[in-house]
Amino acid sequence: MEKSHRASRLSVHPRLGPRDSIFPGNPDLYRTVDTNATCSPYLQECVMAMEDCCEEAYSAQEIIRQGTYDLPRMSRVLNSDRVFLLVDESTVRRYKADLSDEIEPQINELLSRAEKGLQILLKRESMLQAKVEASQSRPTSRAAASTGGMGKLDVRRLQMLSRQKQKLEDELAALQAEVDNMELIAMKK
């Protein structure tokens, strides 16, 4: 059974040449006289197996290095501690009651302010409504009279009142929309 000849790691990587001798003198002193001696085939197989193991270890080291080069950053990301604190239901109810006691006066104050503001807007709306009705009834009675006999002063006054009427109607519409919005807000609460 013949094995295929594989190049050793030492021949592939010339920088990984044979190591220096550990003997402190001339290496020829420790060599045998027999120059025709050949290595045992078992020894040669052992060296080749060792080279294969070194190659496998080197490739495994490269794979591990590629897989773990980002380890410091990933360990910081994954080092988030989650702490869960379990409390009983009576503690939750107590804190809930404390919170409602703290917030309730402020909410009541805001509600009373909103109600006062709503009353003021309703009064303003009724006053503007009365002004609009009054201004609508006056020009019609004057318009019934002959306008041909009116002087320039009366015509200007009539124009001014009609502009004022238009302005008041616009204000009334805006106030009505504001009142409607406040009523919707009050109903939602």
How would you characterize this protein structure?
With 189 residues, this protein is mostly helical. Helix content is 70%, strand content 0%. The protein is built from 5 helices and no strands.
Q: Which properties best describe this structure?
A:
189 residues, disordered N terminus, mainly alpha, 5 helices, 70% helix, elongated
Number of helices: 5
Helix content: over 70%
> Largest sheet, described in full?
none
- Rg (C-alpha, Å): 51 Å
What is the overall silhouette?
elongated
- The tally of beta strands, per DSSP, is 0
The end-to-end span amounts to 94 Å
Low-confidence segments, given as residue ranges, are: 1-7
Q: Approximately what portion of the residues adopt beta-strand conformation?
A: under 5%
Mean pLDDT: 77
Structural class: mainly alpha
Sequence of secondary-structure elements: HHHHH
